[in-house]
Amino acid sequence: MSLMHAYLRPQDADTLFTDGQWIEAMLRFESALAQSQAECGVIPEAAAEAIAAACAAVRIDPAALAARAHCSGAMGMAILQPVQQWLRSHRPEGLDWLHWGSTTQDVVDTAHALLTRQALQSLLAELQGLQQGLVALAERHAATPMLARSLMQPAQVTSFGFKCAQSAAALQRSRAQLQALAAQALCVQLGGAVGNRATLGAAAAAVEQALARRLGLQACGYSWHTQRDAWLRLAMEVAVCGGSLAKLAKDWSLMSQYEVGELHEAPRGSTSSAMPHKRNPVHCMQAVAQTQPVPQLAATLLACMDQAHERGLGEWQAEVAHAATLWRHVHAAAAALRSAAQGLQVDSARMQQHIDGLQGVVYSEALAQVLAPVLGKPAAQAAVAECAAQALSQAEPLHLLLGRWLLQQHGMADPQLSRALAAAADPQQAVQASAQGCRDLLAMIHTTTDKEAAHAHP
User: Fold this and answer.
1) What pTM value is reported for the model?
2) Fewest CB atoms within 10 A around its CB: which of 20, 104, 128, 141?
3) What percentage of the chain exceeds 70 in pLDDT?
4) What is the mean predicted confidence (pLDDT) over 410-427?
5) What DSSP designation does 157 have?
């Protein structure tokens, strides 16, 4: 990993798809394949034992492996050469049976599935931690009023808890989708040279199932060498999850602006070389940086689907090279936001100041609804629009200006109508719809979480 990538990753972020993990996974495939074939009577037991011993004993240098793969154009061939050399020197009875009935893409695809399963578990753990942080914030701030912004402008009153619950629910949906899609995508690949398993013949299904059991993957019953639909659906959900994380990071970043000041990340010392007063939202910055390449990576992976005939010429190779990067970026973004959520400081007084500073214009819809039965909807909206401009210019609450306007224009001095206008401009009343929405989302999240726990511990 380069220096410029490393500082954007959380320090405690898991390392995914390393060279060592790739080598271990490919050797694991060859060992498990031989043992599965021996179990099914396809190759001799002694050969399988020899191959397993070779895969456990051989030491492979990543740079040398890459150099061999560069010459052959096939990583699967490159990983076999040191295993063949070890067998030739130590256990020649396994040499003829190594990689029996398989092909180079079987090695890499199955290893990729193993590493993706590990990446999935790491991502799910980060998402769960972030979701728990969001749920805690939502429960604490379900009825904390704040400005909702539409087209970057003040719109109505919402609650900070509702915003947190919405993000938590989005992550809940992504977690569910990732797990459902993984059940279809994380499969062994055992198609042989052109995907028809010709060498394994009638034993192919039994070998595949035995291999899947040994590796903890699924046995889908077919080759997916150039049919990448299930595999790419999982990757696309990772990208969608990255979009949800990007939205959260952007919102929190905007709320952390000094002029807004509604949120602050936990203090971390100096974050600016020139301006000691600055308190930069570093975790949000990391998450934004990590999610920037995600749409392009998703597009790149989709562009790799038009693989030629029974083996892609460059398309598949590009997919394998770029897929890990997508997982790393989304995982790092989730980890950064989990850290941000754990130390997030919410300035509810500042949120209320922003509402109060708008002199009630954010209640314009509710105020127009109060006046509509009296004036008719068009006239009510026109009156609110006229008085809203005065409220801002004169720094006087809109509902009071409307009461005065009614008296001046229509001779109305109805105490009940005045009370209704005041109630419509009450932030505690205005926040109730969002507070209820927050509670509804939290109930749904808790129900789903309880079901997950019951399924995990029957």
Assistant:
1) 0.93
2) 20
3) 96
4) 91
5) E
